[in-house]
Amino acid sequence: xxxxxxxxxxxxxxxxxxxxxxxxxxxRREAAxxxxxxxxxxxxxxxxxxxxxxxxKAYRLDTTYAEAALQYGVRRWGIPADTLxxxxxxxxxxxxxxxxxxxxxxxxxxxxxxxNVMERGGEFDESIAVLEGINRQDPGNTDVLMHLxxxxxxxxxxxxxxxxxxxxxxxxxxxxxxxxxxxxMMLAMGDTAAALRETDRMMARYPANxxxxxxxxxxxxxxxxxxxALKALKYAESLEKPGxxxxxxxxxxxxxxxxxxxxxxxxxxxxxxLAEDLDFETKNEVMAYYLQTLIRDNADxxxxxxxxxxxxxxxxxxxxLLALSARYxxxxxDFPQALDDIGYxxxxxxxxxxxWEQAIVYAFMLDDHQKADSLYNKARQLLPKTPMxxxxxxxxxxxxxxxxxxxLQIYQIALDENFPGQKISQxxxxxxxxxxxxxxxxxxxxxxxxEIGDAYYKQDDREHAFINYDNALSLxxxxxxxxxxxAYFLVEENTPxxxxxxxxxxxxxxxxxxxxxxxxxxxxxxxxVLFRKKDFDQARELEERAIELLGDDAxxxxxxxxxxxxxxxxxxxxELDKAIEMWxxxxxxxxxxxxxxxxxxxxxxxxx
Length: 608
Description:
Serine Threonine Protein Phosphatase 5, Tetratricopeptide repeat
């Protein structure tokens, strides 16, 4: 009896232990799934660090949980920590992740995800192995075939890449995109003949499709057989109906451009722009590129005029074409015509801010500053939102008219509408600005603060000018324009400059010119800073370089100022005759400069 009781008790204990173990295991599984679902919610909200920690807890509670293993493994793999980037740790991350693959080898999306993670980690063979496993489970999945083809190509397994793309083609059908891929693989294998054979096969199967003949022309161009390329493109053109064939005509135009046949190039561009099967957007892009080429090469502008006439007849009510015509006329310095063109574009679409900006610029270039101001006022009335750039142009225009209060008023409106709470007379509140700053508007704000500083300076208000330059530099300490202007104004005053301001100007002018060493304005500023530091030899070298870069067609006031500076530098170098020569040249550019008259008359240097 005691032995029987002992056996019963022992057996009962084992049963209870088994039941408790099963209960613990069930509770761990349930907790693991709770962590997993919570992690998925965090991941959906973009809280990836929290999600990763919860996936880790889910996996560690239940290492048989394949879904948790996948999520934890790939995240562990991606942590940029030295301890997890060793070969041993990377192998462990893969081992954990691949538990899902072993349990669900045909589950497409998670395994595709795993393959992508491996590919991003440079584990191309592993990534290919996963995709090949999916392909064996589902050989008709063309997404996998396309991805496999790309990976085979990346790893220079050209035969396999071609096999995968051929399998894709058998399922999805033929097309020009697949031909381009296949031909590229054949060229990578060094088999030019195969690429041409495949192209000829497609041309024979689809004889009326010009895309294949165009591609053949491109292929011949790639392998440097220009005569064959031209023959193929002309054949493609012959397949088109009269008045059509815009795409092939553009390819022919490009061929003639590359071979230097400008007459044939112009002819094909002209024909392409007349073609019925090119939409307006494409024609507008082609025209813009064509005009840029004419302007860059200083070519005969009548060629552009002729094509514009054609397009204007085709699209009399397209404001974008008028805007392009305006830019073209502006490039020819025909600003009256440019202003007329953009005015018609605004009549057709007054909600496009780019048109208003163009119009203000053209009026400004015509020195019609009242017109520019009127356009700004109309833009504010008619645009849904006035861009910062238009405020900037209007403020600059008012400054040029010496309406400084008007300029500052415009700049304050710009701040009020875009950066509420900021005042032009105060140091910027960077904490408040952070609420409104974006990648798109920060450069506009930096420019605006620089322009506010310029306007204050021209009012002889150095204090508020320098506050705004500091605001600009707080947003971008290396902004070259702000550094240059600030440096120049620090030392421009003809009263003694403090040592601190002189060193500050020296540092800023050096930083500005390091970013753009061939900018004549920056060179002039740097030369003048060096003049104030009494480094006359270096100042002379930089000022002469600035004048050289400025060229003969420079603005008279600007050139006069540089010549004036050079005269002052030469005077300090005891080269009096050369100094007077420079002052006289400056006087021709700026005949109303009383200080220059005084220097030439008295043959000596004066401060203002």
